[in-house]
Specification:
Shape: globular
Radius of gyration: 29 Å
Largest sheet: 2 strands, antiparallel
Strand order of the largest sheet: 1-2
Distance between the termini: 83 Å
Helix content: over 70%
Strand content: under 5%
Number of helices: 29
Low-confidence stretches: none
Number of strands: 4
Oligomer: single chain
Structural class: mainly alpha
Length: 638
């Protein structure tokens, strides 16, 4: 069961990838879906046993490497944290695989697509079940590779190739910090296994490096690594461009897999992070800033998938600042609920795109809600959960995050609480902006597009309905276990709160207005969206014209791409061009009898020596021997 949950997706990827040409597209597709369904059955069973019945286990696969003091095993660690992640990943991924059978029905490379999709799932499962940092890093890099393949799936498009490269390169920046953190961890603890690290935390608290507490440095380095995968402010620029991949890819990356890896890492390393207060402050500030930044940008975007992408970025910020104030359980709870309603929103957007003949600009939609009523209904549910409206899933988890930030009674916690409230208002606003412009008003698409608007097939609608149920019920159903009165028994030590961290207790003692505020702001955001886009649609254009500098600043995503282009991309291009035109063309090839020409002439001369005649070779050997003996005799006589 524990092994099957992880390795069935790899089996599906292998069948689709290596045998797809012989067994056919349809067989490869359904083999991948069947393997994913088996993985989900195993994953949910593992969740039942390891999490709900408090029976954690570790399955040893093999000894992986032993180099000096470094001994790494390949093992599957199933505690409550891992079991929650495995159950969620396998279930969501199965639904996305099933949805893809309809969405990608006319794609000529279905075996390749399903092979990549299953490989992505396997890598993420390997990451969350890792028993040591090396194995975790294997899964970490695996999802990076799979994301590169999936984002650039339509490799005929230059934009897709650029987006894939951008995601790959930006994540390598974060991965450099992760590797530095891993190296420093080994230097500090002499091991990379989680049990060995966590059991030695107390002894390591007094250690320093360059005069800094070593646990603080490790915490900051690991967080910077997490910033790449989880698209936090500064290393977020790849995330909106990742929309170049097929819509099911966006759902998998944004809901259940890659972007949640950084949040999982913070929760997994909670025993260490608890003794790195400065690192936690950095996590809080960056997370809160990301939540606010992405929420503002989401208000101006016009591509339906990009709006939801920036929503993901914002919600990840919530998760990080929850971890930053010490409420790791709350961060994972929001990760869990978010997986359902964000997968629902992305797949719902895919259903809209499918109905609108691949149109993604919400300015060219409108007036279609009666033609695709099921998609319309599930998009309502997803956005209600995202906006934190009672009593949908996001209401429970987002409220808990803001309560924890308020209860932290720290400067960074207050900063996170205020920005979190503003982001809650903006989230509701841009969610209903999307709903109104997509489904309501007069049709703005061309007539031939409107004539072909149709509901998606059942193979796409069934996953949407299942996810909608998750978006409604997972918050209320799991609140008590994840963050309520039974959280200690449920997490069973898989997430650690140190003795000085009382946040999980004090968050339930906040004033009554604190849990009420996000809901009030959410309703206010929805009301403002109706006012701007349903009743007085001229207002947004007037506001943009009145404050063009602010509007363009937000529309251009705070000019991060332009800034990075100025600081990094253009200088590197100039250096590369100089090395090419000066170093290569002028110096190497341009000197008198250039170095390349001299090398070529020398090689031609050497070739002439090789005549193939034994007599010539014998003569050269005898001449060499005579020369050697002569030199030897001269030396002796002296």
């Amino acid at each position: 069961m524990f092994v099957g949950a992880v390795f069935f997706p790899l089996l599906g990827a292998s069948i689709a990838g290596f045998l797809g040409r012989w067994i056919g597209d349809r067989a490869a597709q359904w083999a991948s879906i069947l393997c994913m369904a088996l993985a989900a059955a195993c994953g949910l069973s593992a969740f039942w046993q390891a999490a709900l019945h408090a029976q954690p286990t570790t399955v040893l696969i093999a000894d992986w490497m032993e180099v000096g003091a470094l001994h790494v095993e390949w093992a599957l660690r199933y505690d409550t944290l891992a079991a929650v992640m495995v159950g969620m990943i396998t279930l969501i991924s199965t639904l996305i695989h099933l949805y893809s059978a309809g969405y990608m029905a006319h794609d000529p490379s279905r075996p390749r697509f399903f092979a990549y999709l299953s490989l992505f799932t396997f890598a993420m499962l390997m990451l969350v079940t890792a028993d040591n940092l090396v194995q975790l890093f294997f899964g970490w890099e695996g999802v990076g590779l799979a994301s590169y393949l999936l984002i650039g799936y339509y490799y005929e498009r230059e934009s897709a190739n650029r987006a894939a490269m951008k995601a790959f390169i930006v994540n390598r920046v974060g991965d450099l910090f992760f590797m530095m953190g891993m190296a420093l961890t080994f230097w500090t603890f002499g091991a990379l296994g989680f049990d060995e690290i966590f059991s030695s935390i107390e002894e390591a608290r007094a250690q320093t490096i360059f005069g800094l507490p070593v646990l603080e440095v490790i915490g900051v380095l690991l967080f910077l690594g997490a910033c790449g995968k989880s698209a936090q402010l500064g290393l977020h620029t790849w995330l909106p461009d990742a929309m170049e991949g097929p819509t099911p890819v966006s759902a998998l990356i944004h809901a259940a897999t890659m972007v949640t890896a950084g949040v999982f890492l913070m929760a997994r390393m909670s025993p260490l992070m608890e003794y790195a207060p400065f690192a936690l402050s950095v996590v809080t500030v960056v997370g809160a800033s990301t939540a606010f930044f992405a929420a503002t940008v989401g208000c101006t975007q016009t591509d339906i998938k990009r709006i939801i992408a920036f929503s993901t970025c914002s919600q990840l910020g919530y998760m990080f600042f929850a971890a930053g104030v010490g409420a790791y359980q709350v961060a994972v709870f929001h990760l869990f609920t978010h997986a359902f309603f964000k997968a629902l929103l992305f797949l719902g957007a895919g259903s809209v795109i499918h109905a609108m003949s691949d149109e993604q600009d919400i300015r060219r939609m409108g007036g279609i809600w009666t033609k695709i009523p099921v998609t319309y209904a599930v998009m309502w549910i997803g956005n209600l959960a995202l906006a934190g409206i009672p009593f949908f899933a996001g209401y429970y988890s987002k409220d808990a995050i803001l309560e924890a930030a308020f209860a932290s009674h720290s400067a960074v916690g207050t900063y996170a609480f205020v920005l979190g409230l503003i982001a809650a208002f903006l989230t509701a606003f841009y969610s209903w902006r999307l709903m109104i412009l997509t489904f309501h008003g007069k049709p703005r698409a061309e007539q031939h597009v409107m004539d072909h608007v149709h509901e998606s097939p059942p193979v796409m609608l069934i996953p949407l309905i299942v996810l909608a149920l998750g978006a409604i019920f997972t918050g209320g159903a799991f609140y008590e276990l994840f963050v309520g009165h039974h959280w200690q028994e449920f997490w069973n030590g898989s997430i650690v709160n140190a003795e000085h961290n009382h946040i999980m207790h004090t968050m339930h003692e906040v004033p009554e207005w604190v849990p009420l505020a996000p809901s009030v702001l959410g309703v206010a955001g929805i009301a403002m969206a109706y006012l701007f886009y349903m009743f007085f649609p001229a207002i947004p254009a007037r506001i943009a014209a009145a404050i063009p500098a602010v509007y363009n600043f937000v529309l251009r995503k705070w000019y991060f791409d332009e800034l990075y282009d100025l600081i990094f991309v253009r200088p590197m291009q100039r250096i590369a061009r100089g090395l090419w035109k000066v170093g290569d063309a002028q110096i190497i090839d341009g000197l008198p009898n250039g170095a390349a020409e001299l090398t070529l002439g020398a090689s031609r001369g050497a070739v002439r020596i090789q005549t193939g005649r034994v007599a010539n070779y014998a003569f050269i050997m005898i001449a060499g021997l005579v020369l050697f003996v002569s030199i030897f005799l001269v030396g002796v006589l002296r």
